[in-house]
Every structure is written in C-alpha cells, then in structure tokens.
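Students often ask why we bother encoding 3D structure as a string. The short answer is that it lets us treat folding as translation between two languages. Here is a chain of 151 residues written in the first language.
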Amino acid sequence: MQSLFKPETGLAFASLSLALIFIFYFISLFIVFTKPLDIGTTALAQQAWQKIFIGMTVFGFPNIGLSIATYILAKRNALKIVSIVLIVQGIVIIAGMADTLSISANFIDEYKLLNMEMIPQAFLIAGIIPLGLGIHLFTLKPQKRSRFFTQ
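And here it is in the second language, the structure alphabet:
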C-alpha cells in the first residue's frame, strides 16, 4: 500500500493518463478526417498538420518522456506496480496507434497529406519504449540499503 504514495507511482499513473489522452486525441482527429465537413475541405486540410503537431508536442512526446523519467526513478526500488503501469501504457499506445493507423486508410482524398500515415507508425514503434522499460523494471530486484547509510 505504501508504494501507491511514492512519486514514481504518481508519475507512472500520470504517464498512463497522458497516453490515454494522446490516443483519444489522435483517434478523434483521424475520425474527423474520414467524414466530409461543412466548413470545407481546404480549411481543415490546411490545419491538419497543426492539429497533429499540437497532439504530438502536448501529449505524445511528454508521454514518452514521463515513462522514461518514471523508469529512472523506480529502478532503484523496483516497484512492481510501476512496472505494470508502464507495461499497460505500452500496450495502450501500441493498440491505439494500430487503431489510428486502420482509421487513416479511410481518409477522404482531400484530407490526405504527405506522410500523415507515418505519424501513427512512428508512435506505434515508440510504444515499445514504455513496454520494454516496464518489462525490464518487472525483472529487477530492489537494491539493498546500506546499514551505514540511511535515507
């Protein structure tokens, strides 16, 4: 129960929630690109890269950074709950980006931009990072504390 109140556990849950927000943002954005809108295709097509860039910089990159910071903090104590959350985060990112990639096949031709399908593929590969960190953290043993140096 004490492991729930450690900073690395809070970071792990924050990273998982950021991953969920990131996946929901991209799925909803890509669903919009599959339906014709009344505002016109050119207005949305001009803003498509802006919306994708906002999603990557606000949710995507900090999500991966938080998972790495969580791993660095939790490596010493080897908390199992943190490793499980990191594994779940990796699975969520991989499954969500696979779903986003399947949605991108149904884009309207006016919304298809150069290399738009590469973004889900890149984050599908980036989802391996928290998954691998969580698996590695799950196999670690906690470090023994020195009896001469107490924290």
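Translate back mentally: Helices lie at 7-32, 41-74, 80-103, 118-126, 128-139. Keep this in mind for the problem set.
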